[in-house]
């Protein structure tokens, strides 16, 4: 028998029989997750003092932190239900009540997400998520990678930070979009083919869209993601065709061929590195494919930043990749 929580007092069923049909490995996995959930809740509760949540300190306590009944009262759930949750019993927890528990335990976004995952509940997306925050050392690392072009992007292909070599490669100036960033996928699908510096675009664009499709699966229904995809669908028939394929992929090292009006054609290997502490952000580093490419990359460092004009008159000022 399963116990379902709702705000207010909820009494659990007297027994919780084990499902004999459940495979042992799956049952062991769930049991381990419940154990982790119980230990996590107890540790979080011990870190919150009564004064932290507006309660009087009261008499001397045998253990630090809040009592179980205090957490249950402040979260609006039954004491027995919360006790069972903290004991790792097989009860169902809704997103609504887990959010209330997270609020009482003063969990930040990372702690709240961890709580939801241990409870086996999908993390409720925020309609207006906070923008990613890069540590200042990230820019120091990017600058130290020069003359190799390097940049930080997120899973929507927003370019969040870059070094001077990247700026010279893609002829970019500092951010001037609504969110303060460029978007490399948007530039790739909307720049005229005759003026796009991405020469093997036809080969690499399907991979980029497949990577976006894979990331989108984690954000279905989130307003910012939905509007972003809709804007790409409206702007590009090519994107609509690629998006309809339903191909899914992850980022992997890829050879990208670029042209620059002053340096010439460069064959560069794009390698992607994740950034701990910044979810779904990665560093893209472009390394020369051969000696001639290396010479041309080094020449980039001598060029002033700024846009360039293609023979057709189109002014290109956005990043790709």
UniProtKB/TrEMBL annotation:
Signal peptide: none annotated. Residues 135-300 form the MmyB-like transcription regulator ligand binding domain. Residues 1-33 are annotated as: Disordered. Gene3D superfamilies: 3.30.450.180, lambda repressor-like DNA-binding domains (1.10.260.40). It comes from the Bacteria. Coiled coil: none annotated. Residues 9-23 have a biased composition (Low complexity). InterPro entries: Cro/C1-type_HTH, Lambda_DNA-bd_dom_sf, MLTR_LBD. It holds the Pfam family MLTR_LBD. Residues 24-33 have a biased composition (Basic and acidic residues). This is Helix-turn-helix transcriptional regulator. It comes from Kitasatospora purpeofusca.
